[in-house]
């Protein structure tokens, strides 16, 4: 299927209309035989239901289409040739995607990698290794461009294929410090959003994004996740979509591993290397996903609600999401003795904080710590020496170090 420009405009007007989300869009198009007739019927239908609906103006949507073209992006409509096949198979796929970059990546098998924003050095190093190894086997990496695990997964797969799903418009990168990374992905991978250009992400937009992160992939790997983490929302969506869920086991002393360890208890596949993912997905990697059914299911007045929970304009406006509050997870409670930072110069405080944030109960190599913290080697050695004197870290064979937990202190 390939829509004409007029049909594409009708689709955009319908999905941008008030209270029309993916399920409602499907219901209306199926009932009236197209987006154009649905737009004509919408005012009367809404009046019958005792509500008023703001229908997106033709001029506004024409300006949006012009802005998308000027931005260098394009619209993909559900059922068109380049629309991701894996996404078509989920419940309530977005009728329209705004994409920027290499859309041929949608035709390749993909795995999503998600995890903690406040990731440990061990988690970041594992993410980097798995993403690179999967990329070497022609697997595309999908993630949400968040801090920590997401960003590391994208960077490790830039040369082999990566897809970043945004919660806001393609021109509203969140967090701001990932604008350069987003630009690199748009040049070598692809950026994806179901939101209009200019849309500032709200808190509730991130779970909505997460269903696309899982829906674009054959399976989802959760590397680190605290309880109540947004990464666990992605894992739940993956399970509901019939996709495999993988989790990396972690120390029971590290809050960043509580969510992943819970997933393993609930039946997720344990992942200690990329081979665990490849073996579990081998039949799908070989045969691909089953062909999605018809584009729109048969309308049923008795089972299909007309207005759905994924509507774009459902209810009062929500404040713009603040930095650090993208519903990924709360900052983990500290699990080491308080670090005495007042005795250090400002520059040393920054390096110390960065190094401590990367450490956890799981041993990590000093080489990985140096690379991930980007600290000068001399500074790293001084900081590790200070932490060792304060009884906050433990050294292991093979140039590995780990944090000493509170329980170790109390012992």
Q: What does this entry look like structurally?
A:
By secondary structure, the protein is an alpha/beta fold. It has 3 domains: 5-64, no CATH class; 75-287, Rossmann fold; 346-410, Winged helix-like DNA-binding domain superfamily/Winged helix DNA-binding domain (Arc Repressor Mutant, subunit A, Orthogonal Bundle). It is 42% helix and 11% strand. The chain is built from 16 helices and 12 strands. The protein has helices at 5-15, 22-32, 35-48, 58-71, 85-88, 121-136, 149-156, 179-188, 205-215, 230-240, 258-265, 274-287, 346-358, 366-373, 377-389, 406-410, and strands at residues 74-77, 96-101, 110-114, 140-143, 162-165, 190-193, 219-222, 244-247, 269-270, 364-365, 393-396, 400-403. The strands form 2 sheets. It has a 9-stranded mixed beta sheet with strand order 1-2-6-5-4-3-7-8-9, with helices on both faces. A hairpin with a 3-residue loop joins strand 11 and strand 12 (400-403). The chain starts with a helix and ends with a helix. Mean pLDDT is 83; it is low at 297-349.
């Amino acid at each position: 299927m390939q829509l004409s420009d007029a049909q594409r405009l009708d689709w955009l007007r319908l999905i941008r209309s008030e209270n029309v989300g993916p399920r409602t869009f499907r219901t209306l198009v199926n009932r009236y035989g197209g987006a154009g007739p649905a737009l004509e019927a919408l005012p009367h239908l809404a009046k019958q239901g005792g509500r008023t609906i703001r229908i997106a103006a033709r001029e506004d949507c024409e300006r949006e289409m012009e802005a998308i073209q000027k931005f260098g992006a394009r619209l993909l409509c559900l059922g068109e040739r380049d629309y991701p096949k894996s996404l078509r198979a989920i419940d309530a796929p977005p009728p329209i995607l705004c994409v920027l970059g290499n859309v041929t990546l949608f035709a390749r098998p993909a795995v999503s990698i998600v995890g903690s924003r406040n990731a440990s050095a061990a988690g970041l190093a594992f993410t980097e290794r798995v993403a690179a190894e999967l990329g070497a086997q022609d697997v595309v990496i999908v993630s949400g461009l968040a801090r920590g695990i997401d960003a590391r997964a994208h960077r490790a797969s830039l040369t082999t294929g990566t897809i970043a799903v945004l919660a806001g418009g393609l021109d509203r990168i969140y967090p701001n410090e990932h604008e350069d990374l987003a630009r690199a992905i748009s040049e070598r991978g692809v950026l994806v959003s179901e939101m209009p250009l200019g849309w500032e992400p709200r808190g509730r937009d991130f779970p909505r994004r997460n269903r696309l992160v899982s829906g674009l992939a054959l399976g989802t790997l959760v590397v680190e996740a605290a309880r109540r983490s947004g990464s666990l929302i992605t894992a739940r969506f993956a399970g509901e979509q019939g996709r495999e869920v993988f989790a990396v086991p972690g120390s029971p002393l590290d809050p960043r591993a509580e969510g992943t360890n819970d997933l393993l208890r609930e039946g997720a596949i344990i992942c200690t290397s990329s081979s665990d993912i490849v073996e579990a997905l081998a039949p799908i990697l070989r045969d691909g996903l089953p062909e999605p059914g018809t584009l729109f299911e048969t309308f049923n007045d008795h089972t299909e609600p007309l207005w759905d929970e994924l509507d774009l304009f459902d209810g009062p406006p929500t404040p713009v999401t603040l930095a650090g509050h993208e519903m990924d997870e709360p900052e983990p409670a500290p699990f080491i003795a308080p670090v005495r930072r007042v005795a250090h110069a400002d520059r040393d405080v920054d390096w110390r904080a960065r190094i401590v944030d990367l450490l956890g109960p799981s041993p990590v190599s000093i080489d990985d710590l140096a690379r991930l913290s980007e600290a000068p080697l001399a500074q790293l050695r001084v900081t590790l020496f200070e932490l060792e004197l304060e009884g906050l870290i433990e050294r292991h064979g093979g140039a590995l170090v780990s944090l000493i937990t509170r329980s170790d202190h109390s012992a």
